[in-house]
From TrEMBL:
Pfam families: HAT_Syf1_CNRKL1_C
Ranges in a coiled coil: 557-623
This protein's name: Crooked neck-like protein 1
GO cellular component, one term: precatalytic spliceosome
Spans annotated as Disordered: 1-28, 700-720
Family: Belongs to the crooked-neck family.
Amino acid sequence: RGGPGAQSGGKMASTAAGKQRIPKVAKVKNKAPAEVQITAEQLLREAKERELELLPPPPQQKITDVEELNDYKLRKRKTFEDNIRKNRTVISNWIKYAQWEESLKEIQRARSIYERALDVDYRNVTLWLKYAEMEMKNRQVNHARNIWDRAITTLPRVNQFWYKYTYMEEMLGNVAGSRQVFERWMEWQPEEQAWHSYINFELRYKEVDRARSIYERYILFSTLHCCFFNQALLVIVHPDVKNWIKYARFEEKHSYFAHARKVYERAVEFFGEEHMDEHLYVAFAKFEENQKEFERVRVIYKYALDRIPKQDAQNLFKNYTIFEKKFGDRRGIEDIIVSKRRFQYEEEVKANPHNYDAWFDYLRLVESDADAETVREVYERAIANVPPIQEKRHWKRYIYLWINYALYEELEAKACSNNSGDAERTRQVYQACIELLPHKKFTFAKMWLLYAQFEIRQKNLPLARRALGTSIGKCPKNKLFKGYIELELQLREFDRCRKLYEKFLEFAPENCTSWIKFAELETILGDIDRARAIYELAIGQPRLDMPEVLWKSYIDFEIEQEEYEKTRNLYRRLLQRTQHVKVWISFAQFELSAGREERLQRCRQVYEEANKAMRSCEEKEERVMLLESWRSFEEEFGTDTTKERIDKLMPEKIKKRRKLQAEDGSDAGWEEYYDYIFPEDTANQPNLKLLAMAKLWKKQQQESEAAAMDPDKDIDESET
């Protein structure tokens, strides 16, 4: 009705609507996961197992005539040419092509391929190397020389070309040609290893003069610092010190000592005072030391030490010290070292006066060098730094200052005074230290004992006893009592030892070691009754630190005295206090070793009593230990009846589970453990019967299953 225009407008509208229409997206109706899930790992594993990406090997060809060979060559060359045509810059394709032609002895074709490859990339080092190696393999020496010449001309900074070229010429015996190549190389001023290779080459042919001339050029051109200024090249010759040292050692090795000394002197002059290096002077001094020129060595060291900064001359100091200790005046070098170290220690103790380790090092230094008055002055300065806190841990390092001071006065400070003066000074040091210590809070038994030992060395026994008695009165300690008792024992004053032991045990009645030592002293003196009384007093104490050791010592004492009845009573008294399995076993072994006719019966009776006593013990492992000991006894001394009886008493080991709980009360799982069931334990009889019935039922089940699996066997057995 609207005409053609209306129709065309309708078409355009429909086209526009069609362009804006969004395509439908496929909707997934079932979004639940699939029953079988496949992971990427499974996909890779299946691909590996099925070898999907592996291509079968090409079939082997057997060439039988010339036409097939030519056809094969044509196809291979076409393949190589196609690969090269695809990507000319892949040098590996060129090398493979050339090596294939080389394998066919087509040397001319291989050369052509290498030349074409060099036109593509002449900077490829591998390409030059493969090309030259091919010529050398096929004994084409002149061709190889030509290639090496082209390579070193094109790429003169590639050292590998030079090394292989010179090696080839040397292997061919062309020494002059190899030397010529080295000379061309040295014009490029290569790295140090190249110079050393040239020098070693000349030395292999005993050309020492030529090697010397190379060294001369080397030390002048080995390290060049280049500066560009106004587009002009300024070359500053500044060789390394190590190159001069190598040159001098070369001369020394070939016994040209005058030349070596001249090299060192030139090096010192060359570097001057602005660029001094301690390594050069150390090497120079060691050279002169080897030549026995000790005065020259001393002059070199002193010259260097005066001009090189101290922080840069540590190695120089060390070597100078070693030299002086070997050959020279010890005093001269130690003055230098001591002054330097003394300055360092002074700085440390000024920064922290309570740094006692620094004081120890400082005192060790001045003791080895200075006079007695200087050492005393430093000691007085050190001990004046009393720890500010009266706690023993802060005084442990400080007290050794006093100890070292006293030992120094007694042993080493005898050059400036007589022995009596030294002894009086030492006594004053000890007394000053003892007065300084806060004995009400803590003390140092070491200091008291050292003072007493010093007085004994001075043969002044009353003062030593007075010092130890004062220490026990002011601040009694176990170590003081032991030291005092040991002193009196050495002097064989046994009555004093008894009194000291009595005081010691009044101070520390729980110390079992003291009771034992006291009793052993009385035993050695032959007073058995006193020793037994001491043991009785000891075991009667309400609190002991090691009662088991005390009881064992008492029992061993009675056994040594062969008082078996008293020993037996001791065991009974001990068992009234503890039912430990080791006590029972020890009691049984004692009865076994008593040496009487009824010893076996007594030992077996002890085991019987122990077994009855330990039935109520919660620790079943101890009861098992007892039965094991009993069984070993019966196996050695018992009869068949007693062996059978003890075997019946042995428990059965079973595995159980129990529930675990964490610290917060939560469930921590289950654990397995082993338990023991004793046959004579009446409380476990129902469990044993139940266990036996369970085993019998399990055996019947296994037999019925076996019969069901093999019915013919049952028929045969019934017929039989």
